[in-house]
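Run log // design_07
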């Protein structure tokens, strides 16, 4: 890629729009595939017109570009050494139309985000891949995604109604326009005529027609979707459906309108376990006849890995897996009558199967969730169990269902023949679509030769069974050299004709889907190095990214991890210049702007908490004087909170708030932004000492031990009211409950201020205090310990996990022990809630919603809810982090315009107040207000 092209982009888009620093390039290079190519530069596109401008410049300069969104693709289709265009951050609009019958979506929205909005209408998207938590609409369209239940009936190709396209020369076409075909003919006459000619060429060739009919009966994402040449007549409709599954090689889909499908509420699931893989796959015709929504296959290796997870499903927990296999079978119907009918058919069919244990189907949501947890995270879990330093490679194929049993047997033989021990087979058995995974060190000559030989044998095997080499993951780089083998010379030529008609200068994702390079699948394979625990387990799936609060500001958890890998590689290679550049930039992007909220762990199949990595890195870089100072604060925490409260009150009383803000900014410039918090006028006055507000009963009279959060001692209440501690105590008194507050309460804390900053000595000091005072106060666990702030509750759970003490979130305690005794409360018209990362970890978000429902007619949780990243004082150290993290949610909050705004943690309330301009307070205070005002 030429420097002149980069300069022209900067002149057109702005100097900062084009990123080419080492940290930008290395962070953007990694995705879920087994390929790794370093882009020359990265552009984060802001809107459709900007994409058009970029493509126009690239096309004129004949410079290649590659689009990337969620980074969950598995075959290298988002990897490039040219310009990468990031369409994840800005393209996130979701618009529900026709009461959920249709949805208009941009490429940066994930399937889960879309389905969450459709759920209230009883609808969902047709495509349902296992990566729905992270895969975006851009990839869903570009790969013609399907999934576990949708098959070929409700895949992307079948459910897209229209789209807005940006072509290689920058032309924008909305296929929903009534004159869209005329627009295409007028603006791109050669393309329009070319598609007409290609259409007629295919239709006039009986062999081509027969091949298309045979291959597209199955799931098939190999090459272009040339079935569109048969299914549609108008060139614009053909073009739209060619773009589905084109992997960014024909154009960019800036927006798509999907026809949705029903989200059935009556669901039953069963895990059928067989003695061996052959028995399992042989059972498919019988089970398919019962019309299940999904049948998922897992072989013995998959089951063994699933057994090793934290909470394996009961159906497989106690099996001694030898050659076993399992089929996860699910039925989805609109009503109980239909679901019962299908279950009777399933139970009757199961009698004739060679099962290792009786078939049991359940509608219990928790049991069903445990069964699906096995399957949904299987790729990442299996890949994560690989040996350190090896790379996981996942392929997917499809064969006619009646040939699946034989295909699986032959595949297993191939694994053995090529020395791929521990390889796994799993997938969507109902559609004859299976995935298999191999792991190896592909950076050695032996590893590369073994992969080349295996791939050749695998291709021959699949094609001999009448199958397709790519069923749903896309062709990518992995299978591009074999497209002609699957389709034959004529249809392969047709595909090249399509490519040249749409992209004459071949600027769009060259080397992907079609290639003249016979060994392209062996080039650029990712290699990994052993670094550290959190890093080594990561499979780079990207499931963590949508929930990360810093994703739009600096880095995501996946990027924090891959940069550690690339840093280690640079050091191993002796590339000191690269290593220094990565380390310097990582200090802010990787460490300072991580909220250490742990939300990444909630979606990571490997349960990696990148916050643990960041906390350890903070501890390693901690300056001795600061570390010593923070360790001292743990000994005299009451003095610290009192001083902080006084400082806030003084600052609030100063008639010129700009002066105080200016002083803190100067101090930040001197001692560092990650050391000195910035005071802003939206911060409240200081709070009151906890001991001054304590209404404490003796332990032998108490119903619970109450630990008021020190956040409320530092930060005063939002509206000058009584505050959280007083509200909690009054509610408990109203319910006739007596609380014991430990001695020395002013000096107690959950330890988070020290652990989040990496000051381990201070955390250890505080843990000992908590153990000495709180465990004793609880009478060695006979009384529950309750904290009124969710994040502090989470901290105390961590500090006391080795002791027999029940630690309860205050909102759970109020819901369960207090609310039933309060009677009817005064209702507000509406309330908007901000669930916190802590309520997510603790499982107490439901309690937050239930308390809100007790005091408001309408309860709103914003669609774009996420961690606010205020994170104690992180929002004052790096206010840009909170601003970025809260921006999507803040937009929702303003539109909802509720009467009351509430959360369950003072720091989060401050962050959301700053972001929205709405006064947030604890839901406990809201409940207390409702009692007082009834």
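design_07 sequence
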């Amino acid at each position: 890629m030429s420097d002149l092209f980069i300069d022209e982009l900067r002149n057109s888009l702005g100097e900062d729009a084009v990123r080419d620093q080492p940290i930008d390039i290395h962070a953007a290079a990694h995705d879920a595939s087994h390929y790794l190519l370093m882009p020359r530069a990265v552009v984060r596109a802001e809107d459709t017109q900007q994409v058009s401008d970029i493509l126009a410049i690239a096309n004129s300069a004949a410079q290649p570009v590659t689009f990337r969104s969620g980074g969950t693709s598995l075959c290298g289709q988002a990897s490039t050494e040219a310009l990468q265009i990031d369409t994840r951050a800005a393209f996130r609009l979701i618009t529900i139309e026709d009461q959920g019958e249709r949805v208009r979506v941009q490429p940066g929205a994930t399937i889960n985000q879309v389905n969450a909005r459709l759920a209230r209408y009883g609808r969902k998207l047709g495509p349902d891949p296992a990566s729905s938590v992270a895969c975006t609409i851009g990839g869903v369209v570009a790969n013609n995604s399907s999934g576990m239940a949708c098959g070929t009936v409700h895949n992307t190709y079948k459910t897209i109604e229209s789209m807005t396209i940006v072509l290689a020369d920058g032309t924008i076409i909305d296929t929903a326009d009534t004159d869209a075909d005329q627009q295409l003919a007028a603006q791109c006459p050669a393309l329009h005529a070319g598609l007409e000619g290609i259409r007629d060429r295919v239709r006039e060739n009986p062999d081509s027609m027969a091949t298309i009919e045979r291959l597209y009966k199955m799931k098939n994402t190999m090459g272009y979707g040339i079935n569109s040449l048969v299914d549609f007549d108008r060139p614009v409709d053909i073009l739209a459906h060619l773009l589905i599954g084109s992997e960014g090689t024909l154009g960019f889909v800036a927006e798509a309108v999907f026809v949705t499908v029903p989200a059935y509420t009556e669901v039953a699931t069963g895990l059928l376990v067989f003695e061996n893989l052959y028995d399992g796959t042989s059972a498919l015709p019988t089970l398919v006849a019962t019309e299940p929504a999904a049948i998922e296959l897992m072989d013995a290796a998959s089951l063994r890995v699933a057994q090793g997870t934290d909470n394996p499903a009961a159906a497989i927990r106690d099996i001694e897996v030898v050659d076993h296999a399992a089929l996860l079978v699910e039925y989805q119907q609109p009503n109980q009558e239909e679901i019962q009918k299908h279950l009777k058919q399933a139970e009757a069919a199961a009698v004739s199967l060679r099962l290792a244990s009786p078939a049991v189907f359940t509608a219990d949501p928790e049991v069903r969730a445990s069964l699906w947890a096995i399957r949904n995270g299987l790729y990442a879990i299996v890949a994560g169990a690989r040996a350190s330093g090896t790379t996981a490679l996942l392929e997917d194929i499809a064969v006619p269902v009646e040939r699946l049993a034989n295909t699986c047997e032959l595949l297993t033989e191939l694994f053995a023949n090529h020395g791929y021990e521990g390889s796994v087979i799993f997938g969507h058995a109902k559609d004859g679509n299976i995935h298999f995974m191999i792991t190896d060190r592909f950076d050695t000559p032996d590893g590369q030769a073994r992969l080349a030989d295996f791939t050749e044998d695998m291709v021959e095997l699949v094609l001999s069974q009448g199958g397709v080499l790519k069923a749903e993951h896309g062709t990518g780089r992995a299978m591009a050299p074999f497209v002609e083998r699957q389709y034959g010379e004529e249809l392969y030529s047709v595909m090249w004709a399509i490519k040249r008609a749409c992209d004459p200068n071949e600027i769009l994702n060259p080397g992907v889907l079609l290639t003249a390079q016979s060994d392209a699948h062996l080039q650029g394979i990712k290699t990994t190095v052993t670094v550290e625990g959190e890093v080594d387990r990561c499979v780079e799936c990207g499931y963590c990214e949508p929930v990360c609060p810093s994703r739009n500001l600096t880095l995501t958890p996946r990027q924090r991890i891959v940069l550690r890998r690339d840093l280690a590689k640079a050091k191993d290679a002796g590339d000191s210049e690269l290593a220094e550049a990565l380390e310097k930039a990582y200090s802010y992007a990787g460490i300072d702007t991580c909220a250490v909220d742990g939300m990444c762990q909630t979606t990571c199949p490997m349960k990696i908490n990148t916050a643990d990595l960041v906390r350890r890195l903070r501890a390693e870089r901690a300056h001795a004087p600061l570390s010593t100072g923070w360790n001292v604060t743990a000994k005299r925490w009451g003095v610290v909170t009192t001083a902080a409260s006084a400082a806030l009150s003084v600052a609030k009383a100063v008639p010129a708030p700009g002066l105080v803000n200016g002083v803190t900014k100067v101090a930040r410039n001197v001692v560092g932004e990650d050391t000195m918090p910035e005071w802003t006028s939206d911060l409240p006055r200081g709070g009151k000492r906890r001991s001054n507000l304590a209404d404490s009963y003796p332990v032998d009279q108490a119903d619970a031990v109450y630990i008021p959060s020190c956040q409320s001692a530092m930060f005063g209440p939002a509206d000058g009211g009584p505050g959280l501690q007083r509200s909690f105590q009054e509610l408990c008194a109203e319910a006739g409950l007596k609380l014991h507050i430990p001695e020395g309460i002013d000096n107690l804390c959950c330890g988070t201020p020290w652990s989040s900053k990496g000051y381990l000595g201070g955390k250890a000091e505080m843990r000992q205090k908590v153990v000495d005072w709180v465990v004793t106060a609880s009478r060695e666990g006979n009384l529950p310990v309750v904290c009124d702030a969710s994040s502090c509750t989470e901290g105390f759970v961590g500090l006391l996990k080795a002791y027999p003490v029940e630690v309860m979130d205050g909102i759970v305690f109020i819901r369960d022990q207090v609310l039933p005794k309060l009677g009817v409360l005064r209702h507000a018209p509406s309330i908007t809630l901000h669930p916190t990362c802590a309520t997510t970890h603790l499982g107490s978000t439901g309690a937050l919603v239930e308390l809100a429902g007790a005091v408001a007619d309408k309860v709103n949780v914003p669609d774009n809810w996420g961690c606010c990243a205020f994170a104690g004082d992180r929002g004052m150290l790096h206010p840009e982090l909170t601003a970025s993290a809260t921006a999507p949610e803040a937009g929702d909050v303003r539109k909802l315009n509720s009467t009351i705004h509430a959360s369950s943690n003072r720091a989060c309330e401050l962050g959301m107040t700053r972001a929205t301009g709405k006064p947030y307070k604890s839901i406990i205070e809201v409940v207390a207000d409702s009692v007082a005002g009834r």
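The mean pLDDT is 93.
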